[in-house]
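Hi U.,

Before I forget, here's the chain from the pilot set. I'm dumping it here mostly so it's searchable later in email.
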Amino acid sequence: MPRGVVPRQPARTGRQDKVRVGTGAIARPARGRASAAAPKGRQKAIDKKAMAKPAAASIAKLKGYNPIAPERVAEILKRLNDLYPAVTCALTHASAWELLVATILSAQSTDVNVNRVTPELFRKYPTVEAFAALAPEQLEPDIRSTGFFRNKSKSVVGAAKKIVAEFGGQVPEDIDKLLTLPGVARKTANVVLGTWFKKAVGVVVDTHVHRISRRLELTKENDPPKIEQDLMKIIPRDRWILFSHQVIWHGRKLCFARKPKCAECALENICHARDKTWSTVEMHKNAQ
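Structure:
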């Protein structure tokens, strides 16, 4: 190697060369001595001409890019299926009622923490009628570690009382009826209907689905009900239940909110999220 010439080092960000955030990624010309095939006087003009074509091609490609094109969505689903072929809800439960309680408790908490609490909780109160006989204050010490325990106690006891009084002690299989229960919104209703009753009524939008759907440019919305509607339009109905579970697991295993493991991700080369930690593709400023 000629003296004074230092080989280029990888960027500390982990991003490959030739990748730039934004809409006009341009291949960078090689540094070092001018090509022996071209006189120095012509080198600058040649470089400009060479750089113009990739830029024009990149812009043309961007104009034709459709993040929710059926073929792209199908490829995302295929890769998720390869990564997580048979995943299901991580909340431990043995009945629709136990799943309902666990899902209510999981708000602003982790599934791991909820799974530490519920075995003793269901041993102490084995039926929905046992919960219905409680005052919310009696339940608070048992679920304190899940956070927001006062509101959650009111929701669980209130849901139990309504199920016993109006639904014969059985968790209803109808989403409109489920949504009348205290503490139950569409996310909780979709979890119970999809996981326990195997009914694809909607798409579960938790924090992982919310974040990753936006990173993959499957939605531009920030409101969970609107995100759900966008996903229901582009995801085949027979994949609604599994898709949610797969994305949730992906968020736990690889696509972290902070420092996602992009270099290990099977979706990397079709993901254009602007905060990727490593990329072989152009990153889009609105993919977040």
